[in-house]
TrEMBL record:
Domain called UspA: residue spans: 5-136, 148-284
Name used for this protein in its record: Universal stress family protein
Keyword flag tRNA-binding: no
Native species: Rhodococcus ruber BKS 20-38
InterPro entries with a match to the protein in the record: Rossmann-like_a/b/a_fold, Universal_stress_UspA, UspA
Gene Ontology MF annotations: ATP binding
One Pfam family it belongs to: Usp
Keyword ATP-binding part of the UniProt annotation: yes
Swiss-Prot/TrEMBL keywords: ATP-binding, Nucleotide-binding
Family designation: Belongs to the universal stress protein A family.
Lineage: Bacteria, Bacillati, Actinomycetota, Actinomycetes, Mycobacteriales
C-alpha cells in the first residue's frame, strides 16, 4: 500500500478547495499520489437528461482547476483525476479499499460537501474501509496550524488504531499529542464489580491506568512527541471539541466502547462531524 493514494472529493466549492489544499499537503508530506475524484451524477437524473452534459462539463472543469491549483503549489506531486459516473458517495467509497485515506470538505455546493446535511459524508464515514478526513471550511482553515494533534482514547481496539495514526501524524508534524480519555458514559460494571466501597476516585484511577496502558510502547516508539494525558469523568464530545479549538488535527476511532460506542451512528459522531473546528480524521477499526 506504499503507492496507495490520498483520494479527495472535488465539487468546485470553497470547502472542497480547503479539503483539496489539506489533502495535497498531506500527500506531498508523505510522498504518496493524490487522486482527485469528481462526480458527474447528481442522483435521480437519467442518462438521457439534458443536464447530464452540463454535469460532465462541470466535473471536467472542476478537476482541471483543482489539478492546476495542486501543481502550482506542489509541482513534484503525482496527481491523477477521475470523473465518475457514480453518485458522489459511491465514487469515493469505490476507492476506500485501496486508498490511504478519503478527504472531503464539510459543506459545499455539490454532493461531496453537502452531505453532512444529507447523506454523502455520513455514508462515506460510516462505510469507508480506510480513514476519512473531514475538513472544515476555509474560514476555519489554519486556525490550529501550529497546534497539537488530539486523539480520543478509550482502550478499545479502534482507539488503539487511532492512537497509532495520531502518533504518526504528531511525529510528522513536529506537534505535541493530547490523548483524551472520557469515561463517564462507558459501562463501569466491569470496573466496580466485586469492589465493595469503590468510589469515583477509585474508578478515575483505574481509568487513568487504561489511558497509560493504551499509550505504553507508543510513546517509546515516538520519543520526539510530547504527550499530554487528559482523563475526565464526562462525555467525550465537549472535551474533544474544547481541545480541538486550537488543534491541528482531531483523530477518533470509528467504533469503541463507552463514550465512543457506535459513534458513527450516534450523537458523538454527528456532533463531531458538524462542529469540529479542525480537520477530523475518523480511523476505521482494522
Amino acid at each position: 500500500m506504499d503507492d496507495a493514494p490520498i483520494v479527495v472529493g472535488i465539487d468546485g466549492s470553497a470547502p472542497a478547495r480547503a479539503a483539496l489544499q489539506w489533502a495535497a499537503a498531506e500527500a506531498a508530506a508523505t510522498d504518496v499520489p493524490l487522486l482527485l475524484v469528481s462526480s458527474a451524477n447528481a442522483g435521480g437524473i437519467g442518462a438521457s437528461s439534458p443536464f447530464v452534459d452540463e454535469l460532465r462539463f462541470t466535473a471536467r472543469r472542476n478537476l482541471a482547476s483543482a489539478t492546476e491549483s495542486v501543481q502550482r503549489e506542489h509541482p513534484d506531486l503525482s496527481v491523477r483525476t477521475e470523473q465518475s459516473s457514480l453518485v458522489a458517495a459511491q465514487a469515493l467509497l469505490g476507492h476506500s479499499g485501496r486508498a490511504r485515506m478519503l478527504v472531503l470538505g464539510r459543506r459545499g455546493l455539490g454532493e461531496f460537501t453537502g452531505g453532512l446535511v444529507g447523506s454523502v459524508t455520513s455514508a462515506v464515514v460510516a462505510h469507508a474501509r480506510c480513514p476519512v478526513a473531514v475538513i472544515p471550511g476555509p474560514d476555519e482553515a489554519g486556525r490550529g496550524a501550529n497546534g497539537p494533534v488530539v486523539v480520543g482514547v478509550d482502550g478499545s481496539r479502534a482507539s488503539l488504531h487511532a492512537l497509532d495514526v495520531a502518533f504518526e501524524a504528531a511525529d510528522r508534524y513536529g506537534a505535541p499529542l493530547v490523548a483524551v480519555h472520557a469515561w463517564s458514559d462507558r459501562d463501569l460494571v466491569d470496573v466496580v464489580a466485586g469492589t465493595p466501597g469503590a468510589t469515583w476516585d477509585d474508578v478515575g484511577r483505574q481509568e487513568s491506568v487504561v489511558l497509560a496502558e493504551s499509550l505504553a510502547g507508543r510513546a517509546q516508539d515516538y520519543p520526539n512527541v510530547e504527550v499530554e494525558r487528559v482523563v475526565v469523568r464526562d462525555r467525550p464530545v465537549r472535551h474533544l471539541l474544547e481541545r480541538a479549538e486550537n488543534a491541528r488535527l482531531l483523530v477518533v476511532g470509528s467504533r469503541g466502547r463507552g463514550g465512543f460506542e457506535g459513534m458513527l451512528l450516534g450523537s458523538t459522531s454527528r456532533a463531531l462531524l458538524h462542529t469540529t473546528p479542525c480537520p477530523l480524521l475518523v480511523v476505521r477499526r482494522s
